[in-house]
């Protein structure tokens, strides 16, 4: 039987190691995603390197403003593994954020990524909420300012200026995922019971039903 002084470090390693898990690590120069494959894996199956082309590592279009003519007055143009297959296993992605005056990317979180944002034009009011005591950290950002949103924390970006705003975000996952809080709670399919939501938000069922109708229609 192995001595206890050997077992304990091994046990600690097995328990702690999942905390360091993230996107699948690359085991070769690249693993271009084969989006046509029907095989289900954690990430994407690698395309045969012999048929990989330079365009698998290329995306064009972030110079073009997104359409902000919507209720939120914002647009997010994501560059992730689904539209840039060369990102597969590299643990990184990108997004362009466009805002009309008063435009908002509403409270949301990325389950698989930290986000770092730089303002290219305009002014943004941004913030995130901690998971421990619901502390809110906010900052007004101007052109050239950088802000980081820790992985899994609810955050938002709001254009409080009188002109359009543009930002660029880097994310620490090839597929960061995004969960918009209000959409998830009030627009779930099938709907979360209005009994549950009425009690959770301390609102009457009529108000809950109205909120669900707004977000069900939006989804």
Task: Give a quick rundown of the structure.
The protein is of the alpha+beta class.
Kindly report the oligomeric state of this protein.
single chain
> Regions with pLDDT < 50 over 5+ consecutive residues?
4-21
**Helix/strand/pairing category:** alpha+beta
Helix content: 10-25%
Main sheet makeup: 5 strands, antiparallel
Topology summary:
Blueprint: H1 4-16, E1 74-79, E2 93-99, E3 104-109, E4 115-121, E5 124-129, E6 136-141, E7 146-149, E8 155-158, E9 165-171, E10 179-180, H2 181-186, H3 194-201, H4 205-218
Antiparallel strand pairs: 1-2, 2-9, 3-8, 3-10, 4-7, 4-9, 5-6, 5-8
Helix pairs in contact: 3-4
Describe this structure in words.
It is a single chain. This protein has helices at residues 4-16, 181-186, 194-201, 205-218; strands spanning 74-79, 93-99, 104-109, 115-121, 124-129, 136-141, 146-149, 155-158, 165-171, 179-180. It is built from 4 helices and 10 strands; from the N terminus they run αββββββββββααα. It is α+β, with helices and mostly antiparallel strands. Helices cover 19% and strands 25% of the residues.
């Amino acid at each position: 039987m192995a001595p206890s002084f050997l077992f304990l470090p091994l046990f600690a390693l097995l328990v702690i190691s999942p905390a360091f898990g993230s996107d699948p690590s690359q085991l070769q120069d690249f693993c271009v995603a084969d989006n046509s494959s029907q095989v289900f894996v954690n990430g994407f199956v690698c395309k045969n390197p012999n048929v990989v082309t330079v365009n698998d590592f290329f995306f064009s279009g972030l110079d073009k403003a997104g359409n902000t003519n919507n209720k939120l007055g914002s647009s997010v143009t994501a560059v992730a593994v689904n539209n840039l297959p060369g990102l597969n296993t590299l643990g990184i992605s990108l997004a362009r954020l466009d805002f009309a005056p008063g435009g908002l990317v509403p409270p949301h979180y990325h389950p698989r990524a930290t986000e770092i944002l730089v303002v290219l034009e305009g002014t943004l009011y941004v913030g995130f909420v901690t998971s421990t005591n619901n502390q809110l950290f906010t900052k007004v950002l101007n052109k050239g300012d950088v802000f980081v949103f820790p992985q899994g924390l609810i955050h938002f970006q709001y254009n409080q200026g009188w002109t359009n705003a543009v930002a660029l975000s880097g994310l620490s996952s090839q597929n960061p995922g995004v969960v918009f809080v209000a959409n998830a709670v009030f627009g779930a399919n099938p709907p979360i019971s209005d009994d549950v939501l009425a009690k959770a938000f301390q609102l009457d069922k009529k108000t809950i039903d109205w909120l669900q109708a707004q977000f069900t229609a939006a989804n």
